[in-house]
Each structure stands twice: as structure tokens, then as C-alpha cells.
Amino acid sequence: MSRRAVITGIGVVAPGGMGTKDFWSLLTSGRTATRTISLFDAGRFRSRVAAEVDFDPAAAGLTLQEIRRMDRAAQFAVVCAREAVADSGLDLAEVDPARIGVTLGSAVGATRSLDTEYSVVSDGGRDWLVDHRYAVPHLHDYFVPGSFAREVAWAVGAQGPTALVSTGCTSGIDAVGHAVELIREGSAEVMVAGATEAPISPITVACFDAIRATTPRNDDPEHASRPFDRSRNGFVLGEGSAVFILEELGGARRRGAHVYAEIAGFASRSNAYHMTGLRPDGKEMAEAIRVALDEAACDPSAVDYVNAHGSGTKQNDRHETAAFKCSLGGHAYDVPISSVKSMIGHSLGAIGSLEIAASALAIEHGVVPPTANLHEPDPECDLDYTPLTARERRIETVLSVGSGFGGFQSAVVLTRPERRAA
After folding, report:
1. What are the catalytic residues?
2. What are the residues whose beta carbons fall under 8 Å from the beta carbon of 404, sequence distance 6 or more?
3. What residue segments make up the domains of the chain, in order of their start?
4. Rounded to whole angstroms, how far apart are CA atoms 291 and 40?
5. pLDDT tens string 131-172
6. Is the pTM higher than 0.85?
7. How many Å apart are CA 213 and CA 207, to the nearest integer?
8. 5-254 has CATH 3.40.47.10 classification
9. Which of 188, 200, 230, 244 could form a disulfide with 378 if both were Cys (CB 3.0 to 4.6 A apart)?
10. What pLDDT, in 10s, does the model give residues 291-328?
11. What CATH number labels 265-417?
12. What's 370's DSSP letter?
């Protein structure tokens, strides 16, 4: 493979702190950012906990016009993109704008703004025939999630391939995978890639309540997200964004860029089985892992850390455990695995990119983040899920995986570029 894609910049907006530094500090400390929902009155819902971002758009550098125009998720993405560009040290003015592209992932788009605007035009749901005169002039942007990618493209001056990927909870992995392919095939030299989501709204909470996917542990929100624990009873909804600067490796080296990691392998599969159900054997996820490792020319035994999907639902954690055993063989019992959702919740389409950020930072700092709240491991989840405390170790290769409603299964492999050269 002659053209290789590497991460040279990272931008993060996440529960528990703004920016990449605060994000990594939260993860390695094992602290949780889950709490009682404060963005709206959730008193009537079954699940009333979430991982919210303490986000002040003006303090984050957005103008009043940007704040008025953009949905909260779009605001997250633009702030992350600007941080990623600054972190990369790349002067985008020196790059042909037609060679700069954008791919973003999002599962539910501008849910918060749509929820709010429907309430306004329907007079709180009273009117069946809504009054369009009360709608904001940017309502069309809320209906079209691709507006998120457009906003980022405007923010960075990208005129190359621009797209939004929406594949449920694997969107954040799949958007980065698509960006890598564009660099490899020569369609772009630089990709601004990642995902964003701001789904904490009445309609989203109601949807997950209806299928009992989220936890009802409202009396202890700090410890409500419990992946792989015997007492887990659903995931905690989250929000946030992570955006990366991806460059062709040769160009990054010529300008002396700092490289966090190479995106060495990516694959996605579908189980063609059930909207929300998972086969217990995990074969579809295992197949995505196998193909991603093959693309990275990486033996399963070389994986130093696995960033799990680890949502904290009964069926997901069992399904994923089976997938690791199937794809990694005996090494599944030796490699440390963890779920950062235990600390920052499940931000749907954004979480895959936040987990890629955690994976790149694990390589950078040589630290495996823990799985918080894992006090009593489920005997059916009998792998090393790194309970409670982070671990220092040399990390050359990370496998990160995602699983989404609709049967989506995705895997991405990050490595130190020197490892692949060897």
C-alpha cells in the first residue's frame, strides 16, 4: 500500500471537559462524567441520566451568528475541527483547497434543534397543523445532517470531497474509514474527519426508553454506566465530538508533523439479522476485526490494547466478548480491553471517533484507560476488561470496534507508523 493515512491533529469536545487534554485526563483517572440530565426536565422518563458536555459556544470561540445558525452538534464539530487544525500545526492556506476533504459521522443529526423547533411551531405539540411562521430561517439545515460536514468545510476552507456518514453507532468509525480510503486512493491529501452528536433531547430519551436500552439507575448516575459488570442494565446516553486531521504519511513526514498514529486497517460488516438484536456468537464483528487486521498486515497476537464498544447492555457485552474470542483466539485472554463509555456515556454516532481519539492517545502516552464501575465482572464476560484503574504499558497497535442498531459492525486498527515499516 503506497499511500498511508496518519493522524496529525486531534480535537475533542466531550463530557467531563473541553479539549483533548481534559478528555484524556478524565479517561486515565477513571472518573465518570455521567449525571442526572440537566439539559431539559427529564422527570417523566424511565432513564434520567446522561453524560452531558458543559459547553459554552461563545467561550469556545463561536460567533453569535454561528451559534444562531448551527445545531449544538454542528457547533461541537466546528470547535473540534479548529482544535485539530491547530494541534496538527498544518497551515491549510498552503494546501490546495481542492485536496482538502471532510467526512463527518452522525447517527441522529440535529435532533435537539428539530425537537425544539417542532415544539415551537406546534405550540408545544398542541397543534396538528404547525405554523411555519414561527420556525427559524435555518430549519432546513436541521433536516439535512450533511449541513454538519458543510459547516466544517466552511470553517477549514475545504473544497475537496465532503460527506456525512450515518450508519448508526458505527458512524464515527465509518466516517474515519471513508476518509482514509479517500487519502489512499489519491482523492485527497488532507481529510478533516470525525463525528459529532448532541442527542440528549426528549425525543431521543423517549425512543430509548421505549425499548429499554438505557439504564434506569437514576439514583446513582455517577456509577450508572457499567460495561461488562454483572449488574449492568443498559447504556447511558452521551454527547460530544472528536475530529482528526488525517494526512498522507509522506506529506506529513516532509513537513515534520507529529504523528499520533496510522489508521492501518478498517472494515465494516452487517449482520442482516435484526434492527436491535445481536447474534450471540459475534461472528459479524469478528469478521470485521479479521479484515481490518488483515488490511493492517497485523497478526491478532500483535494487538496491545482493544478499545471495546462496551455499551453496558446485556446482549452487547456478551456478543462482543464472543467476537473477541473468535477473532483474536487465545490472545483475547491476554490483551487488555476497556470501555470508555463507562466514563463518557454512549454518544451514538460520535462515540466511534471519540474512541479512536482515546486509542490514538493510548499509543501516544502508553496508557490503557480503565473500565470504570467494573466491580463485579459478569462470568460470561471473562476477558481482561481493565477494571477501575488505568495501566501503563508500551502500546504499538490498538483495535477499536463499534456495533450499531441495524446490524452494523465496524473495526479499525491504529498503529505506530514505524511498526508497519518494520
Report:
1. 169, 309, 346
2. 107, 167, 168, 169, 170, 171, 410
3. 5-254, 265-417
4. 43
5. 999 999 999 999 999 999 999 999 999 999 999 999 999 999
6. yes
7. 9
8. yes
9. 230
10. 999 999 999 999 999 999 999 999 999 999 999 999 99
11. 3.40.47.10
12. P
